[in-house]
Design a protein that fits this description.
Elements lengths: L11 H15 L4 H42 L12
Length: 84
Amino acid sequence: MYDVSKPPAPAPRDARLRELIVRFLQDDGGQDIIEYALLAAFIGTVGILAWRSIQTSVGAHYAGWDSAVQTRSSCTPDPGLGGC
């Protein structure tokens, strides 16, 4: 007859799952890959933030250069008729 005081033995599937979980928790072989992925994400984030701050500065300089070129080219002399 079935003994109620003793828990049933784990099924083979449960034992394999338990062994897999224990191995997963003890294994640190993929740690390097995770560290490199975190480092790459950090470098990418810093790059995006740096680009956004540089973008406004470059845009302001470009607008200044554009207005200077437009001012200098507003009076283009005609070769046959003289100046502006």
